[in-house]
Predict the structure.
Amino acid sequence: MNVTVSEMRRVTLIEVNGRVDSTNAGKLGEALNEQIDAGRNQIVLDLSSVEYISSAGLREMVAAAKRVRNSNGDLRIASPSPRVKEVLDLAGLNMVFQVFATQVEAVGSF
C-alpha cells in the first residue's frame, strides 16, 4: 500500500493505492493522524486505486473521521473502487461518510 498526501488551499488530499489490510492499516492511520495533528481537518481520501480494504482499514477511517468532526472538519471519500464501494455499503459506512464519484467533486464539496 502507498499513501500520497497533497496539500490544496482548504483541503488535504490523501490518495491510497493497493491493498489496505491488517498488516498495513496502521500506516493509513498514521498518515491521517499526522494531518489531523497538524490542524488539517478537511480531508479527502481518494480510494480509486484501492483493490481491497479490511475492517482494520475501515476502523482507521472511522477513527480519523471522529477526530476531524470534533474539530468541525470532515473526512470525505472520493471515487472508491467498485470493491471498496461494496464494502462501504455492506458495512453501512456509506451513511457515515460522504462519498463522491470524483476527486474534484469531493474537494469542491468543502
